[in-house]
Structure formats: structure tokens, C-alpha cells
Design goal:
It contains 8 helices and no strands. Helix 5 packs across helix 8.
């Protein structure tokens, strides 16, 4: 395939599936600028890896695999760089605008997913995208059975964490009114 044809094919496929990059960047990067940087890193790696794409397979599955690998690498680098900040230092840092969630339950779910290990975050992202277990397994390089088992365990853990937070909020409201 000529370079121009290759580039045109890549751009067409990328345009059709670009939301994948945005979703993965949102899962693995905190701030707006960090998300933009991670998105650019994912796009670059997709282009570099495009030669390994097999057109006989779904592009979205291949794209998720590349994007999640970049996201996981990013998360590892961030964890290595992270240093605990003194509370007084945190107050001096300028913060970005908060993202408004339409529903507090979505915010709680997002917070609960954010604290998961990077691979578990990837698994939940793909599950919430309603990908079949076989596609999730192909993207993450694990068996279909392992996908089902891990999702069941993650759902239980998230349910436990979310119901625990909800009952704590109810107790705070109850205690503050009495």
C-alpha cells in the first residue's frame, strides 16, 4: 500500500473510532492538559503501529489494545513520579475547572473506578463500552473466562464501595440534621 493510501486509510479509520482515544485518555489521565498529552501519545503510537494492524480483524479491537497499552504505560510512569504532597502545598496549587457530572451516582462510579488498578480500569472501560467478552479478552490478552470472572469480582467490589459511600453520606446528613 502506498504511503498516501496508508495515511488516508488510517485517517478514515481513526475518524470513525476517535472516541476510543478520548475515553482511554480520560480513564488514565487526571487533568485536561494531561489528557490532551496522553491522547496525542496514543494517536502517535497508533500511527507508528498501524503497519501491524490486520484488516481481517476489527479496527476498534486493535485500537483499544494499542490505546490501553499506552494508557497503562502512562499510569505506571505517573505512579513512579507521584510524590505525596503536603496538605498546605495542595492548597497553593491552582486547580482546573471541575467537570460537572449530570448525576452524583455517575460521579461516585467514576471516583470508584479511578482508584482501581490500571488493568481493572481498562477492563471496566471496555465492559461499560458493552464490548463482548471475546473482544475484551482479545484487547487485554486474557481468556474470556478470566474476563467474566474479573468483571464479576469488580462489580461486587464497586457495589460494596458505592453502597458503603452512600450509607456514609446518609449518616453524615442524618448526623448534621440532629
Amino acid at each position: 500500500m502506498r504511503n498516501e493510501d496508508r495515511q488516508r486509510t488510517f485517517e478514515t479509520l481513526l475518524a470513525a473510532h476517535s472516541r476510543i482515544v478520548l475515553k482511554v485518555a480520560a480513564v488514565y489521565a487526571r487533568g485536561v492538559e494531561d489528557r490532551k498529552d496522553l491522547g496525542q501519545e496514543i494517536f502517535l503510537q497508533l500511527w507508528r503501529s498501524f503497519g501491524s494492524y490486520d484488516p481481517a480483524r476489527p479496527f476498534s479491537t486493535w485500537m483499544y489494545r494499542v490505546a490501553l497499552n499506552v494508557g497503562l504505560s502512562h499510569a505506571r510512569r505517573q505512579r513512579e513520579r507521584t510524590q505525596s504532597l503536603d496538605a498546605s502545598l495542595i492548597d497553593t496549587l491552582g486547580g482546573g475547572a471541575a467537570i460537572e457530572e449530570p448525576d452524583e451516582r455517575l460521579h461516585a462510579l467514576s471516583d470508584a473506578i479511578e482508584v482501581l488498578e490500571p488493568l481493572d480500569r481498562a477492563l471496566m472501560l471496555l465492559y461499560l463500552e458493552e464490548l463482548p467478552y471475546a473482544d475484551i479478552a482479545a484487547v487485554l490478552g486474557i481468556s474470556d473466562t478470566n474476563v467474566g470472572t474479573r468483571i464479576a469480582r469488580l462489580k461486587q467490589r464497586l457495589r460494596r464501595n458505592l453502597t458503603g459511600e452512600a450509607s456514609q453520606r446518609r449518616r453524615k446528613v442524618w448526623n448534621s440534621t440532629n
